[in-house]
Every structure is written in C-alpha cells, then in structure tokens.
Amino acid sequence: xxxxxxxxxxxxxxxxxxxxxxxxxxxxxxxxxxxxxxxxxxx
Length: 43
Description:
Largest sheet: none
InterPro entries: ATP_F1_dsu/esu_C_sf, ATP_synth_F1_esu_C
Number of helices: 2
Oligomer: single chain
Keywords: ATP synthesis, Cell membrane, CF(1), Coiled coil, Hydrogen ion transport, Ion transport, Membrane, Transport
CATH topology: Single alpha-helices involved in coiled-coils or other helix-helix interfaces
Domain ATP synthase epsilon subunit C-terminal: 2-41
Subcellular location: Cell membrane
Organism: Thomasclavelia ramosa
Radius of gyration: 11 Å
C-alpha cells in the first residue's frame, strides 16, 4: 500500500508541475492507477 500511496503523491506532484499536455495526460493516468491500487488494497 505504501508503494501505491507514494505513486499517488508523485502523480499529484507531476500534475502541479505539468509543462506539456502529454505530461498532464500521463500524470492523470498514473494518478488513476495509484488510486485504483489503493482502493483494491482496502477491499
């Protein structure tokens, strides 16, 4: 779970620092993946 939470934190940081549209899309996908992992672990 720590790995997923760290990935979520990194993705949120990348969204704040986005420089190109493709960077934003990649960061959003990474954030969604991390949130999904966290939700699955909590089941």
